[in-house]
Specification:
Aspartate Aminotransferase, domain 1, 7-stranded mixed β-sheet, glutamate decarboxylase activity (chains A, B), PyrdxlP-dep_Trfase (chains A, B), pyridoxal phosphate binding (chains A, B), 4-stranded antiparallel β-sheet, homodimer, 17 helices, 10% strand, EC 4.1.1.15 (chains A, B), alpha/beta, Aspartate Aminotransferase, domain 2
């Protein structure tokens, strides 16, 4: 067939008048051609569109964004409408089943139409998510949500129409994590290039264990880990590393490597061949250090908590004291985990001083930079990580402060070959030694996992799209917003900071005291009442769906708000809104 | 604004003639309206299309599927063409950067256009992947692939045009895991509903740790795990479980729970409080059992290998003998892992006999059904798992035989509450006890991970789309194909089966002897040469890109092919093709 026009489209032979440039002259003629040729089900839609519109059927506009009860069962335009019915009438999702899709014979068009329909639902959801008029969450209690929909699994298949309805229902009750006022976790926001990369990753549907099945992704992991090690400051980016399923697992890897480095026989002989070990981390560190110690058979009692100062930083003198104490008790200190960006306060432990102590006592120096590691990409803030280049291993989660879609966590390791020696089991069905390519790219045997999800592509593609300076700008902006918040509330009536001084990360920790509580004389009574304020305000935020921010107690401090900003969609106005909202929801308490 | 026509489209006020039914009468008028109203950037594309086509520009057809060297830099149609240039001219991706996308002000349309462009690339890739005329892989050696593209990460951002080029390049060199002739791993194929669900999961971009941030997904995990436990045969579906990042981690969880159940003090005190432990698994079991033992501080020497019979099944009498031996040596037997579907032979250990021994010696009975667990969904094949209902824990990977996109692995646990007790650390910044909803839905503290990827939605949505009977049909078909393969080659000249008898799973293990090797008298020489056959044929398969199948040695057996079928796209003809291809590529060896 001769090619005519963009995408090979032109007037079909029997489609009426043709002009000399082969462009179709009536919409109907054009769309008849399009229906057969356009990718992604677009053509079918156009045909449906024209034939329906041609019959004068009236449907509402698709411009609205707010969700309401009637969303489920509409076209994704989120207003009550009969679009879906019109689509169904033409495309017949109510007559189609998953078995009609690829690999079914002639399943191409149906597949493209179905996937395009899903994409349209997702695109509408994305637009909504960034709209401040939309709720962050349409909250329902678990039992209520279980009853609002039929979520059960049955023996019989459902139609694709039902599947699309399930997609809409799932999104209706989901948290809009891209929403500019979603501040609840260290991972917030939704990056469009990262999202595109994740869609591609799902489509490639492969596994990181060998070059054979993931050639590009394995190379991109190699390139990216090297770049990250260069940024850490390791000579020529040398060393090792892996992307793992989250910061907790990255930290567990670090502890595993530290133990193996000191006592390689532990791999075969287990902990019975090893003296009683001691690990050290600050009282503000992440719970995954203890979780790792429990799992690895070291035991939580072997994790010795080091005192933190008022702003949450580990006190090096206390570290040294506790190392000496442990040695006196017959423990062998093997692992120190300093935190670069603690979970609650956002504090950066003094890495240089800690590394000196680790060197003195020959202990593995790990930096848990799951939250704060990304600040090394900012020329303005990287000083907070001074000394990280001395680490034996570093956890760094691009899915937090760099807003890479979940999950994306790296463990970087200074010593080459150690991970391989520590974890390899030489499975000969997977890591055949007589393959025809360079086996050093079969990196799977250094992992604890066998199959490993492809987490690299979204980070790599975002890095290409933003450049290092793009990440820097994004990080700097979040820190600027948190400084704005800090300055705004530190002297404001009704607010009290949990610790003094400007926060080092985007964590701003504060109490809000409702007017009726501000002048209470009874300190115990005040504390008791204050403890209940944050949970109530948080519950109201969720019920109104206007914003979400976290709270918690810490040590002897009653519940306070922990505001964190990693969401690139947030602006100064959103910070203002948060404060107004806390005051609106809390004034009667 | 009044609504007119489907999707609210109609003729704009200045767009020429209107008919009484408000449908546009010229393509250009129609498309001008469409450009402003259509979701997903489709409208812009149409405008681009018409204005280009209107100027008589000639471009080739989009119907081709085969990749060639010129793909990178074209429109995704995979033929040398100037489509992209045409698109660029209109949509200007070469002038756009990621900072122009949402959350940028007025970033909606650009975002939709960009994401739609990515989706079009993905849809084209999907169509291609199912086309037998397309290569499974466009293979290049690592160093060559590193040089074929610029994969480096820079300081400066790239344009969205460059980003799209990177997406195309990545897919060009990727394995087409959906391809009907891709048999390389236990996880093959690409399910369209599963893919749609994974795209939605990426878009929701949240985390499984609390109900607060993943209300629907947490409920769906609850519903699905309960259903899976019912199928296992546990009363009323009671018990516990979790979706973990793969079978290796699921098995590690099981070992961790078994240890904790017997010695709960290990959590605080570590292995020094515990006697020397012994775990038992067959010599054909997956390497993750040893990997787990190494990580948990138990040590690989404490994993005692039980003899398997000729077809790869654990010999119960040897298990009992080795348990007694271990006890005599002072070890405490704590864990038996039976395999339901071994990695290489696809053998099912005799679960009932093994469970009797576990009961007798009061040892935790784990079933590693990562590969074979799914057969329980088939009325025809579930007998192979008889006894699984007696297990204390079961690993079951829907991402293998059920063709759910990677990753999707479940660990099911009989005893309620044990996971929570074993792993919880009560992080008060995440699992606040004064939340306003039922805290039993905050399931994160029973995980080893902190953040946990949402792996549930693709399984749940596929289950809704297929029903249990749909999974059953898919599984039965794969087993039918493997039986066809077995019958075809068992008496065929030049083939030798690695073990006698019909395989229990889809694994068919065989040697192919090229004609020149068949009548060699020197058995050692024959063995030596045969060992090299499979690697060479495999390398040639990859270089031609026609198919991919795995091979390995096992024990004293030289390299043999391990064919496995989990790809729902495969047909009898693909099996025929595989045999022809092995013979074509191997005849000269």
């Amino acid at each position: 067939m001769a090619s005519h026009g963009f995408w090979g489209l032109g007037a079909p032979e029997n489609a009426g008048d043709n002009t000399s440039n082969q462009s179709p002259t009536t919409p109907r003629a054009w769309c008849q051609a399009a229906a057969q040729k356009l990718p992604g089900g677009i053509g079918s839609k156009l045909c449906a569109l024209l034939s329906v519109a041609g019959e004068g059927e009236k449907t509402p506009e698709p411009t609205s964004t707010k969700l309401d009860e009637t969303t489920v069962g509409t076209c994704g335009c989120n207003k009550p409408c009969n679009c879906l019915k019109a689509t169904e009438a033409t495309l017949g999702f109510s007559d189609l089943y998953s078995t009609d899709l690829l690999p079914a014979l002639d399943g191409d068009l149906k597949t493209m139409t179905f996937l395009q329909e899903v994409v349209d639902i997702l695109l509408a959801y994305i637009t909504e998510s960034f709209d401040r008029e939309t709720k962050v969450i349409d909250f329902h209690y678990p039992n209520e949500l279980l009853q609002r929909n039929n979520w059960e699994l049955q023996d019989e298949p459902e139609t694709l129409d039902d599947i699309l309805i399930s997609c809409r229902a799932t999104l209706k009750y989901a948290i809009k994590t891209a929403h500019p006022r979603y501040f609840n976790q260290l991972s917030t926001g939704l990056d469009m290039v990262g999202l595109a990369a994740d869609w591609l990753t799902s489509t490639a549907n492969t596994n990181m264990f060998t070059y054979e099945v993931a050639p590009v992704f394995v190379l991109l992991e190699y390139v990216t880990l090297k770049k990250m090690r260069e940024i850490i400051g390791w000579e020529d980016g040398r060393g090792d590393g892996i992307f793992s399923p989250g910061g907790a697992i990255s930290n567990m890897y670090a502890m595993l490597l530290a133990r193996f480095k000191m006592f390689p026989e532990v791999k075969e002989k287990g902990m019975s061949s090893v003296p009683r070990l001691a690990a050290f981390t600050s009282e503000h560190s992440h719970f995954s250090i203890k979780k790792g110690a429990a799992a690895l058979g070291i035991g939580t009692e072997s994790v010795i908590c080091i005192k933190a100062d008022e702003s949450g930083k580990m006190i090096p003198a206390d570290l040294e004291r506790k190392i000496l104490e442990a040695k006196q008790k017959g423990f062998v200190p093997f692992f120190v985990s300093a935190t670069a960006g603690t979970t609650v306060y956002g504090a950066f432990d003094p890495l240089i001083a800690i590394s000196d102590i680790c060197k003195k006592y020959q202990v593995w120096f790990h930096v848990d930079g799951a939250w704060g590691g990304s600040l090394i990409m900012s020329r303005k803030h990287k000083w907070k990580l001074d000394g990280v280049e001395r680490a034996n291993s570093v956890t760094w989660n691009p899915h937090k402060m760099m807003a890479v879609p979940l999950q994306c966590s790296a463990l970087l390791v200074r010593e080459e070959g150690l991970m391989q020696n520590c974890n390899q089991m030489h499975a000969c069905y997977l890591f055949q030694q007589d393959k025809h390519y360079d086996l050093s790219y079969d990196t799977g045997d250094k992992a604890l996992q066998c199959g490993r999800h492809v987490d690299i592509f979204k980070l790599w593609l975002m890095w290409r799209a933003k450049g290092t300076i793009g990440f820097e700008a994004q990080i700097d902006k979040c820190l600027e917003l948190s400084e704005y918040l800090y300055n705004k509330i530190k002297g404001r009536e009704g607010y009290e900071m949990v610790f003094n001084g400007k926060p080092q990360h985007t964590n701003v920790c504060f109490w809000y005291l409702p007017p009726g509580m501000r002048y209470l004389e009874d300190k115990e009574e005040k504390k008791k009442r204050l403890h209940k304020v944050a949970p109530v305000i948080k519950a109201r935020m969720m019920e109104y769906g206007t914003t979400m921010v976290s709270y918690q107690p810490q040590g002897d401090k009653v519940n306070f708000f922990r505001m964190v900003i990693s969401n690139p969609a947030a602006t100064f106005e959103d910070i203002d809104f948060l404060i107004e909202e806390i005051e609106r929801l809390g004034q009667d308490l």
